[in-house]
Design brief:
With 106 residues, the chain is mainly alpha-helical. The chain contains seven helices and no strands. The termini are far apart.
């Protein structure tokens, strides 16, 4: 499979699994993608890895919302009310520990 085909498949997956809003929807993913490619070219980085990472960087939020919806709502409320970054809000809600617990109950 060519790199272009792989990136196309990943892009389609990201489109289908991105949040459906203007802030963190696929338009945001595309902005991150283009920024990563520009920086990656200047640093002579592995562009294929950067492209895939950029396209998938927010997909986990959508998946987590399906399985831990109440906790995701708490995280989003903290981000909005306390004006903190998503990662800080995740830590306050102990999202990582919840994900590990969820994984163990498969």
């Amino acid at each position: 499979m060519s790199d272009d085909n792989l990136i196309s498949i990943v892009r389609n997956f990201a489109v289908e699994n991105s949040e459906k809003n203007d802030i963190h929807g696929f338009a945001h993913v595309e902005r991150v993608y283009h920024t990563c490619v520009k920086v990656g070219k200047k640093l002579n980085a592995n562009l294929k890895v950067l492209q895939i990472a950029a396209l998938l960087h927010d997909v986990g939020k959508v998946i987590l919302d399906q399985f831990l919806h109440d906790e995701m709502i708490k995280v989003l409320q903290l981000v909005k009310e306390q004006e903190i970054c998503f990662h800080e809000a995740e830590n306050e809600v102990h999202f990582c520990r919840l994900c590990v617990t969820l994984d163990r109950h498969k």
